[in-house]
Amino acid sequence: MNSIEALFADIPPVLISETGTRAFDVMTEYRLAHIPVTENGVFSGMLYMDALLTIDEIDKPIGQLAQTLHPLYVTINQHMTKAISRLASGNLSCIAVVDDQMLYEGMVTLESAFKALGNLPMFRDKGGILEIEMNIRDYMLSDVINIVEQNDSRILGLYTDTQLESQMIRVTVKLNNQDMMVLMKEFERRGIDITVHDLSWEESDDLRQRYEHLVHYLNL
Predict the structure, then answer these.
(1) Domains in the chain, please, with CATH?
(2) Which end of the chain is more exposed for a tag (fewer CB within 10 A), N or C?
């Protein structure tokens, strides 16, 4: 699911001929702080709730409210992550989606984006999560994949977080199983630090004993 259309929310835009009051009502109904405005199907800009609250004559058509629209949008052919990035960087409650001719296609809200992300295998499917950390110069994606696959696991999703100041990189891996003890030991054997894992084996005497026996066996 890479299409940005998968993130669309079922919320109508506001027409530029409609009043500021109408825009206020739509944003209030859908709990938005922003709303796309269109004219004859063409995207005109994003209207902010904060701007409306500073206008005295809010009953005027939006087109007559000077300097209230912002040219913030993503295009329909961009990856879904671009919409999510714009939502985050702009601190927006929604973002307009347009085609190459600036025709309005739909909108992505924070809620619709989170719902769509929740259907990705990385978040939807059961499995274990490992976060490993290493120096940037030692990181190779192919090495991580090989270690995982050689230990009878499969990667459902992966993302990285680079710490430029420390020259370290954190790699979060979602796996297709939760029995990660052998895999964890293999990463440790290769000098790769495990900073987070979601298997609560420390809380189970049985699992802890199994892990300790395995470590002892592998160290023989």
Answers:
(1) 4-117 (3.10.580.10), 121-219 (3.30.70.260)
(2) C
